[in-house]
């Protein structure tokens, strides 16, 4: 953390050392997970994330009540959509980083995953509340059930993701042991 404060956002670059034969070599810490546990965890996370991403995309493709002219439904929906898209990006980065992964990749993917899943859940809840408020104030239209079902699916998906101990699966490996 002190390195990040001193060097800013690109503090991880200090972990690369110049070498005449190979160019720059990564000399920082690594994180490794047992391969069966990693595969099982990634399968659960991909299942949960696919469900969450579909639950946010489906209401956007239909003419959903409240998603046309109501800012208190649209803004939480956009927040929810951005969170789910970023979660998909993080999960893809974590999957394709391999095993073991570098320390800065671990901190940017696995360490941020659970809080961002919580943010997607909050976006879904706020969307459901806004849509309920829209329906209670006399608004009407098709697709309200689809949007509310998507919010419920996002809740289950976020619960599955938060329940998985994504950070606890990896063990920090010093650079000398690798």
Q: Tell me what portion of residues adopts beta-strand conformation.
A: 5-15%
Uncertain residue segments: 1-5
Inertia-based shape: elongated
Q: Report the CATH topology name of the largest domain.
A: Four Helix Bundle (Hemerythrin (Met), subunit A)
The helix content is 55-70%
The domain count comes to 2
Distance between the termini: 23 Å
Mean pLDDT: 81
Radius of gyration: 20 Å
Judged by helices, strands and strand pairing, the structural class is mainly alpha
Written account of the structure:
This protein is mainly alpha-helical. The chain has two domains: 1-31, no CATH class; 33-169, Four Helix Bundle (Hemerythrin (Met), subunit A) (Up-down Bundle), CATH 1.20.120. It has helices at residues 2-7, 35-61, 71-96, 103-108, 110-136, 144-163; strands spanning 16-19, 23-26, 30-32, 101-102, 171-173. Strand 1 and strand 2 form a beta hairpin. Helix 2 runs antiparallel to helix 3 (71-96). The chain is elongated. The protein starts with a helix and ends in a 5-residue tail after the last strand. 27% of the residues are buried.
Keywords summarizing the entry:
178 residues, mainly alpha, Four Helix Bundle (Hemerythrin (Met), subunit A), 2 domains, 6 helices, elongated
């Amino acid at each position: 953390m002190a390195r990040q404060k001193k060097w800013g956002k690109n503090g991880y670059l200090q972990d690369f050392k110049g070498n005449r034969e190979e160019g720059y070599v990564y000399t920082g810490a690594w994180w490794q997970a047992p391969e069966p546990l990693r595969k099982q965890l990634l399968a659960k996370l991909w299942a949960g994330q696919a469900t969450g991403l579909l639950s946010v995309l489906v209401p956007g493709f239909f003419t959903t009540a409240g998603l046309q002219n109501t800012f208190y439904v649209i803004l939480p929906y956009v927040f929810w959509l951005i969170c789910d898209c970023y979660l998909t990006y993080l999960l893809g980065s974590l999957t394709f980083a391999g095993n073991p992964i570098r320390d800065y990749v671990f901190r940017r993917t696995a360490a941020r995953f659970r809080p961002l899943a919580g943010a997607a859940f909050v976006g879904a809840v706020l969307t459901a509340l806004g849509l309920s408020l829209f329906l209670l104030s006399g608004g009407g239209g098709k697709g309200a059930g689809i949007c509310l079902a998507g919010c419920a699916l996002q809740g289950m998906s976020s619960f599955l993701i938060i329940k998985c101990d994504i950070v606890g699966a990896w063990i920090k490996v010093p650079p000398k042991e690798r």
